[in-house]
Amino acid sequence: MANKYVRGLTFSTGSTVARVSYFLKMMYEFWGFCVFGGSSLSSPGTGAFASTTPTGGGLPGNFLGTATTIAAGSNGVSLPQATINVASTTGFPTNGTIYVYTSNGTQAVTYTGVTATTFTGCTGGTGSMSTGNNVTSSSLMTIGSDGYTNATTEFRVDGYTEFFANSTTPFTPNMVGKQLVMWKANSGSSEDSIYNIIFYKSPNNIIINVNSGGTPASASDGYKPSVTTRSSINYRVIDVGVAGSSTGIADGNFMVFQLDPTGINTGQANPQIQVLQANSGQRIDYRMSPNGSWTGTAFGADASAVLPPNTVSSSGTNSNQLQNTASSGTLSITLIGDKSFMIGWGKDSAHSSSSGFHWHWEIPERIYSQTQDPNPFAVSMNAYRSASQTQIGSDQTFNGYGGGFVMRCNDGVYRNHRTLVRSLIGDGAPNLFASTVSAVMNVPGNNLTDIRGGANPQIGMLFNSYGVLSLPRVVGQYSLARVRLRNVRFANTFMQLFTRFSSNGDFLLLTQGVAVPWDKTVIPFTLFPF
Amino acid sequence: MTIHLLRDYFTQNTTSNNSYVFPYVLSIFMRRVLKYTYVGDTNYNINSIGTLLIATGDSNPTGATNFAVGTKAGINIGPQKEYYVTIPSSVRTVVGADIGRLLVLRSNTYPRHNSGVFLIVGIEASTNSYVIDYRTLGEKPPVEAADSIEWWLYEKDVNAPINGTANTKTSAEYRGDGNSTTPRLILQSPHALGWQVRFCNEVASDISTNSNSTGSCPVTTYAPGFGGNSAGDYPVFGQHFHAPMWNNSSSNIYVGGAPGTGFTGNNGVQYRITVVGDDTGQGIIMYCRRQFNATSPNSYILAFGLPENETTPLPVNNQARLFVIGSGFAASNKGNDGGFQFSLTDGAAPSATAGYSQGMSATPFGTPCACSPSMWAFIVGGLPGNPGSPGQGTGPQYDIFATDNPYFSATELLPIDLMQGSLSNWSNSSVIPVYPFAPRMIGTIPHIRQGRANFGDFSPTTDPARSYQHLRRGLYIPWNGPNLIP
Fold it and tell me: What's the mean pLDDT when you consider all of chain B?
């Protein structure tokens, strides 16, 4: 499966605090729809989460984006109406705003109460309702499956492109500033992504910022993010500001993500990771289940305890990822994944020196057999790095790519593993030739700082290394090389930030020699905006 | 691919010429057991019956092996005669003068037991047999009846060719080719690529007494390449990476540019030579272990050939696919004990002039460049508590707490990658960039593996088949042979 991307998407938190719930919402949309999305417009695709919905953790429907349809009782009735009949109100808040699709398009309607099948105390809106028309919660402004894009309209303004609804008129001016989630089931297209809506043109035509997703254009067009001509695109217009600040996003609420090992390790179970909001919304904790043992209410014995993210803060104790202060800000998030991995990082502009996170989950390529080392699953969750440190690093033995990957060991204990790379000379000892050590390179990653060691100009390739995970220093659990990481490469620190290179797939060099999967896309902004 | 072992040949030469035994034993093993073909030589005739090759049942010793019916040997000919190798009397009658000579055996059935180069320690006239030093700890050879094993009788190792006089070039040039009398030999791999390797006993003026001196070569060098001639030479600027010869220079900037083995000061020292090779011509590992001194030996390791698991796309120039790594150097304490790693004193820094293995290969352009094993190392940090830590030099294989892998209850072994072009020269006397920086993985070293270093030195792995032997410092070679003499 091709990788999907959300490239440096920025969005506002409005006037509310910068909680991790905003990021959880983005993860939900990306994983449930862009990566795993099927035909459902309101439920994540099959296999994305451990149970049919991720709401077992108490996450409110308005966080996820709830949808229902007009019932016969309101068929042919025009808004405004005090009561609106729907198929179900499950998941909707007991009062608030809903979006009702009528003959006049998407209409915002406020309500003061619910029954099982009605919204009551409704005000607002125009147009005639029809049975089956969509009704969505306030964080999900509209949904549809009639979207299309047209490559011939591309690049009228670089970075912007049009998105159309073919047979409906779902778009409204107040969707500007919100986000469009688009996907086609099993498409393999990197256009399945999340986009900021920039302009409203007409009820069936909006302009989106294509840079966060898209398909790289041709070389002559500079590999700019673009769209191809596609039809019958599924879409959701979400209001992440509403979702992230939804009432009820309390600590302990969670989602259980599930990964798919197809094509990687034969016989492996679908590993799961539960992500939980923690510490007053400032942190994402997690539990790992390599065996995928979530029952709907609990994990089996294979699962880890609730683990905090790794931290490298200066105090060594504060592992928060965001600072939960009462100020608004702009958040930035990058997500890369397919069904077997997800890499993400983000920051809050209001606390750029004291907030941020990075994670990398993947089903690594096993070195031992399924019988010997069942269901290998590696997770690196990291809290912010201090202002003096780069956001993504390879210079720590218990954090990030140096040693942040947690795996379940043979004795059932979860431990951080150390990352190994190929040395440039011998065993990588830096003190070779003591008198001329400056002439000797070390290993890729944070240590490789000699420009002569980085590139092979004769064959036009940037030298880089796979990473493998090792577990030394634990009596009885020694593992020289347990698994190979599939979705990271290690190069050098001196190449220009965001250098793109090929190594059995395209990779993008970030900081400290760490490179993550990428395609040929060239974007006109930084992935580390603050 | 069938692997044949040359198991623990115990050298007899205790003079200062003992380093010349290494290429001698290796070349006859490669020529006869591994079926490398002969390209050419100068004063190094292992090919035809004469000074070095004494006798064989092979009717075509200079070409493709041809043993007629009734001309092969047998081994383990009965009780109390387990270590006897019976020779067809129609081919040769054993004589007392053969004691001390080398018997090269090639077994198709037991290539890791009965193949190899064996020292003749006795004869039995009644059965026309040689008694051989079988080099194991009490195990008996698998029985192979008469007319089963190919055999060649070679001269004693004390008679191995030693270096000769230099050619008539200037002192600034490489002196071991052309009209030099120094013994050298080129063999060609049975691999489809037809790569070659040149053995050379370098002349005195080319031998470096240490890495800062005027010479540039160890005592004996091994240079893979193509295009060797009947004199056992490659052309200057030819398809090889013997750097002094390629550049026609004796400059010390090329120190390490012709990897090899040995030095001339080891009087009284005997070595134990083990070679791993395959019949497809992939590659060679030779380990020359110094007797009685396993902890601080001037021992040598040599590896060359065509890497396995080559990275693609393959370079157009086949020369760039080959490699050689050798640990030999010419002065006392300059040879290392076989670790491909470069901190050779258990993680401590090596001295400025000693203790590293040099490797050479060629760039995709076909020019010589440095080549090195590339072992797995921590991306950051070392092993707290380990000698020499922190630092990548105390990599994961040096973990003093390492045990068998818990996931399969055996010692974990990994292939060792080969890296070209990450070092500008092998001389610590100058930082002049002699070779290009152009890092490129070229594949993995044939046969050898990386594992934990705290496994017993020179010990077989604990699986019933003894699949590998740990040399030292985390290097393992294929074994599946008989038990080892400590």
Answer: 87
Query: What are residue A253's phi and psi, to 5 degrees?
Result: -65, 145
A 473-492 near B (Cβ less than 8 A): 473-482, 490
Whether A299 and A402 share a structural domain: yes
Of B330, B266, B274, B268, nearest in space to B301 by CA = B274
Q: How many CB pairs under 8 A join A and B?
A: 224
Residues in chain A within 8 Å Cβ distance of B342: 425-427, 429, 432
Structure confidence at residue B390 (pLDDT): 47
- pLDDT tens-digit map of B298-356: 678 889 999 999 998 899 999 999 999 987 654 444 444 333 333 322 222 333 344 45
* Per CATH, domain B53-154 is 3.30.450: no
Query: Is A320 found in the same domain as A403?
Result: yes
B264 neighbors B16 (Cβ within 8 angstroms): yes
CA A189 to CA A229: how far, in whole Å?
12
Q: Would you list the DSSP string of A46-80? A: TTSBSSSSGGGG---HHHH--EEEB-GGGTTPEEP
Identify whether A226 is part of a domain.
yes
Measured between CB atoms, does A400 come within 8 Å of chain B? no
Chain A: residue nearest B432 by CA?
A439
Which H/E stretch holds residue A24?
helix A20-29
The set of residues, in sequence order, having a beta carbon less than 8 Å from that of A338 and lying 6+ positions away, is A1, A2, A3, A4, A35
Residues A166 and A293 in one domain: no
- Kindly report, residue by residue over B260-295, the tens digit of the pLDDT: 887 766 677 888 999 999 999 999 999 888 776 555
pLDDT of residue A529: 85
Q: Which sequence spans correspond to the domains of chain B?
A: 1-39+161-486, 53-154
Please say which residue of A238, A273, A303 terminates a domain.
A238
On whether the CB atoms of residues B42 and B60 are closer than 8 A, the answer is no
- Taking an 8 Å cut-off on Cβ atoms, the answer to whether B379 and A479 are in contact is no
A468 vs A405: CA distance, rounded Å: 10
- Is omega for the bond preceding A80 within 30 degrees of 0, making it cis? yes
Q: Looking at the 3D structure of chain A, how many domains does it have?
A: 3
Chain A residues within 8 A of B405 when measuring between CB atoms: 368, 478-480
Nearest by CB to residue A427, choosing from B342, B349, B424, is: B342
A-chain residues near B340 (CB < 8 A): 426-427
Same domain, A263 and A122: no
**B451·A480 Cβ contact <8 A:** yes
Whether residue A475 is contained in a domain is answered as no
Interface check A502 vs B, CB under 8 A: no
Whether A36 has a pLDDT exceeding 60, the answer reads yes
Banded model confidence at residue A461, pLDDT cuts 50, 70, 90: confident
Pair (A431, A407) in one structural domain: yes
**Cβ-defined contact of B380 to A480 (cutoff 8 Å):** no
Interchain CB distance below 8 Å, B424 and A452: yes
The model's confidence at residue A297, banded by pLDDT at 50, 70 and 90, is: confident
Measured between CA atoms, the residue of chain B closest to residue A471 is B396
A515 inside domain: no
Q: How confident is the model over B453-459, as a mean pLDDT?
A: 89
State the complex-level ipTM: 0.91
In this structure, the answer to whether residues A262 and A217 fall within a common structural domain is no
Q: Under an 8 A CB cutoff, do B377 and A446 touch?
A: no
Domain annotation covers residue A49: no
Global pTM reads 0.93
Residues of chain B contacting residue A394, judged by C-beta atoms under 8 Å apart: 379-380
Which CATH number do you get for residue A77?
A: 2.40.10
Q: Determine, for residues B374 and A453 on separate chains, whether the beta-carbon distance falls below 8 Å.
A: no
Using an 8 Å CB-CB cutoff, list chain B residues near A368.
Answer: 405, 407-408
Alpha carbon distance B367, B238 (integer Å):
9
- Is residue B369 within 8 Å of residue B360, measured between CB atoms? yes
Domain that holds residue A132: 66-137
CATH number at residue A199: 2.40.30
Distance in Å, alpha carbon of B123 to nearest chain A alpha carbon: 46
CB within 8 Å: B391 and A431: yes
Asked if residue A344 and residue A305 are part of one domain, the reply reads yes
